[in-house]
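=== Structure Prediction Worksheet ===
Name of assembly: unnamed complex
Input type: mixed (protein and possibly other molecules)
Chain count: two
Listed entries:
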Amino acid sequence: MSPPAIVAPRLAPGTDGLTTTRHPGRIRLISVRVEDRRGVLQRVTNLLGRRGFGIETCAVGPSAEPGVVAISLRIDAGTQAHDQIVKQLNKLIDVVSVEDITSSATVEWSTALIELRSADVDPAFARLPSGVGSQVVREAGTRTIAAIWGPPGPVEEALAELRRRPNSNWICSGPLAMATASAGGSGPVSAPDPGGRPER
Amino acid sequence: MTITATVERATRPIPTAGLTAGTTGAELLLAALIKEGVDTVFGIPGGANLPIYQHLPDFPLRHVLVRHEQGAAHMADGYARASGKVGVCVATSGPGALNLITGLATAHFDSVPVVAITGQVAAASIGTDAFQESDVIGSSLSVTKHSYQVLDATDIPGVVAEAFHIARTGRPGAVLIDIPKDVQQQRIEVVAEPIQRQRPHRAPGRPDQSQLAQAADFLAQAERPMILAGRGVAISGGQAALRALAEVCDAPVGTTLLGTGIFPSSHPLALGLVGFMGTGYCNRAVTNCDVLLMVGMRADDRVTCRLDEFAPRATHIVHINIDPAELGKTVKADCQIVGDAKAALEALTDQLAFQPRPAWRAQVEAWRVQHPLRHPDNGLLQPQEVLAACYARLGPDDITVADVGLNQIWAAVAWTGDRPGHFLNSGGQGTMGFALPAAIGAQAAFPDRRVLSVSGEGGFVMTLQELATAVESQLPVKAMVLNNRQLGMVRQFQDDFYGGVRSQVDHVLTPDFVMLARAFGCFGAVVRQANEIGPALDAAFAHPGPAVIDFEIDPNANVYPIVPLGKGLSDFVECPRS
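=== Predicted Assembly ===
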């Protein structure tokens, strides 16, 4: 008996493999602040993976608070109960705070670097969707590296367009995500909870 | 990941009496263990932890030399479950460290405080695939509450202090400390300040008052209240509080496997084990209650069975757990209370007046009569007869450790004790081979108590090399082997749920356990019929050292009642009438 044929498209039909077009209803935006200790990113990603959550994007870098690293995650919660993302991350000893900031009030911001023919820069910039900023970063003869930035949707729209053009290359950051304090987010300078965490 | 620049380290003089400047990381580690109150460690020396063993004789620590690192982890686990203290195990790098993983998972899943200390290759060799290098931090991430790789010996006192705090605070768990060999040998003049955290790890505060009031209201209004309780009650020392609440509500109490002993088995409200292999009357009560209180338990699939048929008539479910992540994870309770079980139970009792529920109690008693525990009477040795004779020879302080499989359920259901910490088993991971080493660990914690290991022959042979440890370290555990010459629970599953195809479950070659016991220097006996049970047990207990008794039980003995896979709690199948 021959095994049944399995045809599994890598991407959902009609998508371009870009983050904003996949399973929008299952996406959670998670803002995690962690202590700047060796291996902390491994702890975060390991936990999410083994509990069945897919990481679509992950942006990591320093924050306004010394010793605290901010992680912006877009997570495909799949069919799992998404409240477990926050509850389980909160149990990690190195996690300072974790919030689900999935909300229309959350600001998301992506940055991409584009490498293309110098002659194509002006036409490419002219076709950028509104809301997408751009700047030439380095021109080296016939090749140019430019940066574009903006909300993930328009940025990814621009990148999808570039994908269809020959002789160009690009890389894109996972979006940074921030909620204002009034929208339930912690804001950029909130102090750690003086009472400590209740439980991990 | 280190993104920001490393700040200059704050340091202080070596604080431990007896240690002077120039002390080594290994000595700091051992001194820190003493400071945490450790009296016993279980381990094996190897290439990457030899500096620790070099200095071990200088410290007042009992070291139990095990025969396999998995045994060390299970012994630390058994020590911790029995004593309530943190258990400690030690292994070398590479295979030594990886051999701990099953034991750490077993402890961590059951919220047992264990600290594992592993040697590691020299810091400069990490990442080079050096001899006996393993990524024990990466390998243990999912089976520990936290872990450390210490790269500077000055950090050791702070790391050990925090590791023990994390292991025992809030929901307890396993913590691993990995120390490269050169860090164990590093000589230091000062030590680093204790670890400072943005959000220190703390036990939760008092449970939310409004949620407690709501839960009390639900219980007061209930006509058919039911309580399910797990190991969290034992960890919090809440057994008296549980009993008080049950009595004030006139509510029957079922317990999880790990909750065995937290409610007196002789109490009229005791319904015994809940779930997949729970008692029929307990599962009936859960199915028919109108208010269900779950406390100190996770409600995993072995408790709930088919989730959408769990407590279907309950108009309110109250769930109390110290870990918020367990609330709403499986059962969606409408009243979720984060907090210590004892504090929550006491607060609930304070808000309630005694309320008899005669109609509900009569119904529960009718179920008790309707669905009695029974086993075949076919002339073959039945495990229940063996266990009854074993338990009759135990005092209230003595300890039974069950393995995993049919033996575990038989032992738990037959358990007659009335206090927690005296019936131990691997609930969450269901680790076969747990019983013997965990019993050795429990015996190390309480040398004067009788400690029984109850296992099947399948699980027993998985870790039986630790008989050598028991004899050598004079830890006189008595190993009861319920020998059906099969992987019995698997055989029952194959018979009942997998088309009756018995596949790879017969142990055609089962060793002669009497000869095996004697080979290790233990007392050995075999029991083939009921009238031999008592004399064999008495001889085993009279023997000053470890003993093994091979009970040749009915090979077709099953666990009943049992809920067929995929079914709800009320669909349990009972033992056919003889």
